[in-house]
Design goal:
Radius of gyration of chain C: 21 Å
Strand content of chain C: under 5%
Radius of gyration of chain A: 29 Å
CATH superfamily of one domain in chain C: NADH-ubiquinone/plastoquinone oxidoreductase chain 6, subunit NuoJ
Distance between the termini of chain A: 73 Å
Strand content of chain A: under 5%
Shape of chain A: globular
Chains: A mainly alpha (about 625), B mainly alpha (about 100), C mainly alpha (about 170)
Order of helices and strands of chain A: HHEEHHHHHHHHHHHHHHHHHHHHHHHHHH
CATH architecture of one domain in chain C: Up-down Bundle
Shape of chain C: globular
Helix content of chain A: over 70%
Number of helices of chain A: 28
Structural class of chain C: mainly alpha
Oligomer: heterotrimer
Strand order of the largest sheet of chain A: 1-2
Number of strands of chain C: 0
Distance between the termini of chain C: 60 Å
Largest sheet of chain C: none
Order of helices and strands of chain C: HHHHHH
Number of helices of chain C: 6
Number of strands of chain A: 2
Helix content of chain C: over 70%
Chain lengths: ~625, ~100, ~170
Amino acid sequence: MAEHAWILAAVPAIAFLALAALGRRLPRQGDFLAVLAAASGFGLFFAVLASFLGRGEGAWPVLNAIEWTAIGDFRLNMGIAVDQITIVMLAVVTTVAFMVNVFSVGYMKGEPRYWWYFAVLQLFVASMLLLVLADNLLLLYVAWELVGLSSFLLIGHYWERRSAVEAAKKAFITTRVGDVGLLIGIILLWKATGTFNILDIIHAVEAGEVGGTGLFVSVMFIFLGAMGKSAQLPFHVWLPDAMEGPTPVSALIHAATMVVAGVYLVARLLPVFEAAGDALLVVTAVGLITALFSGVVAFAQTDIKKVLAYSTVSQLGFMFVALGAGVVSAGMFHLFTHAFFKALLFLGAGSVILGAHHRQEVGQLGGLWRRMPVTAAAFLVGSLALAGLFPLAGFWSKDEILHAVEGHRGALVFALISLASIMTAFYTTRLFILTFLGKPRDAEAGHARETGASMTGPLVFLAVLSVFAGFVVYGGVGEALGFPGGFGEFVYLHHPETFHIDWGLAGVSTALFVIGVFGAGWLYRGGRLDRAAALTAWQPKLYEMTRRKFYFDDLYQFLIDRVVLGFSYVVSWFDRFAVNDTGVDGSATLTGYAGFLLKHLQTGRVPNYALAIAAGVAALILVALAAGG
Amino acid sequence: MVPLENYLVLSAILFALGVYGVLSRRNAVLVLMSVELMLNAVSLNFVAFAAHLDPDRATGIVFAVFVIAVAAAEVGLALAIVIRLFRNRSSANVDEAATLRW
Amino acid sequence: MITEVLWWIVAAGVVGASAGVVLSRSVVHAAIFLILSLAGVGAIYLFLTVEFIALVQFLIYGGAVTVLILLALMLTRMGASGRPEPLTGAQAPFGALVAAALMATLIGVAVATAWPGDLGGSPTAISIERIGAALFQNYGAPFIIMAALLLVAFVGAIVIARQEDGD
């Protein structure tokens, strides 16, 4: 079954085609098809998993490829590769996709283009699964662009709203900058190794066939693609704006799956990164800066989804820090747990938004604890998991990251990542308090109602996962589930690592959690805003700077207005006057004038033309005879 | 004993007369008659070749049959067009149909 | 011997009649010359011992086609008022030049080429059975297409020539 894992991607692809073609005419606009496809994907994943585990330990990745084309000596194979990293990604994607599809049935009810929403959702799932299954960089790139396309379509789902259109465009163009880098990187790697196949490239690099500055440059280009997709500084600007899309989409694409494609790519190519000089140092630096930066920005955001968006950016930074430390298991583990609790938080936010009649500014919410108990409880579990409470999922993965950083990157990075950890706990607590505690600050929030079963169901399921998913780090739990051991013994780069809890580290981690939570708890005690308002009044400029996201958007706007548009103006002038007026219109005018002159040769009388044709035939025969002898 | 060349020369003369007629005649019906002369020259060539060079397969004969059939179709259509032209312009002279010009 | 003399006489008749078609000053005379010319070509086919084609020539060309042409002449005659117009256009000399050039090249090619498989002898008789076999076996599909073409052409001719309202 594992060698036929492509079926996982084929099922949603077929569902996409069926929904896109027939969705409008089907009963219920075909949403049952989408749920069915997602559920069967979830079920099929376990078949793949069982088959993969059944091959025993230390086995090679499962490969299955067909020859796509042969150009001279170069053979291009397209196929799938299933290894441990892929299995983790498949678990995340199929689970969250299933939950989000179910959630969407309730959330999107009565929304415009209901069928099209589900169709594109299936397209996304298919592309994402293709992305993680691809055995070569070319196929990966195709899927990479396909997920970008689905993300674009879903962010712009409400295209009647101008802001949604702008956000979709921004996401598409910003990630495209990184994607160009990825393409260049892929081409450079192909030029160096002569293959697109990921395993072959890794083997070539490990054998020392390529290296030096060339490898470093190509790896940096590839990392550019990863930064764009995973919204790392300075490409982070698209992700918060992408919250214009429907909230379940934010949960699936902009929290759990697509944005971690960059992390997946780096994890996949980690041996190549290791061999490429200081590439991993760059990965750590970018991740660290992003984690700190977006942690700070998240303090001052008032939109519930934007807080979560910056939190996502920050957590992606954590993953890159772990990968930068060269510990693939820590990065992938955080990806794994984060997918569940962040999807939970986003779906919870969606439930809040729906229940509170489309109020999503924290200044308007508050006191929802009583009115939406299930959502609030699930959101609380997600928040605590994100903040890193022992023994929820987030604690274990964050612990792994701290462990990795301590072991491989030294004290400074450890201190900074701890700071980012405190921020995580702080803004998470702030968000929870402002949304659910205190008194409603808006009439609509006061009339909020708990949402239906199709939404609370996935919330509960994800909440359970957020509590227990972290335990797979233990060897015993892993073995009980049929894995060769804990997470570190399943996903590893060079040697499997058995997990032993480091009580000192766990203490530090818990201390960070406590500092963050109690800091926020004191500041926003009782769900009141006056203390925070006093704090912002004390340092208005700093607050303004944070609220405006350190002027990144303004800087980009300035650059686009002045540099890009200025250059475009020159190009447009050249096009209009030099190319169009002189070249295109000029040649047309010349042709017209020549025709005006030559038309006097015409008589319009048929016999004249016949004579000319006959004379031409005679002349041609004579020429042919003269030439042919 | 009439050699092949005799037929070919006769055909060439017929063809050239037809070309001259097409180019010089003004009346559309006369132009058509000249076209018939040219087609006959072609048929004659086919049959002469078939009889002299390829008697086993008789391909030239079949072609001659086809030429005659096409000629019949062509005459029918062309005369219909001529009649139409005459009705529209009260003249069947081809050099008076000068609207091909700008 | 007698065959050759007869051939030359018929050939001269064909050339003469054809010249009459393209040179005659009267359209009716031209049509009569055309009948003569077509019949002469039919006679030439008899020398080539393909009686079938000769028969087709007499029937279709000598009969049907000429009748059509005569009908068209009748339908397109100018009213009696106008004086007879010249039948030959102004570009006739150039037409003659081109035609002469074509004839010269064609005759040159015909005489100078060594035709493959030509035994120089008299033509081999092609039996009507052989022609039938060739037409209906080797060239069955083109034959059917030809039949369809004829049908379409005649329907088209009717549509084009039909008297419409307001004409």
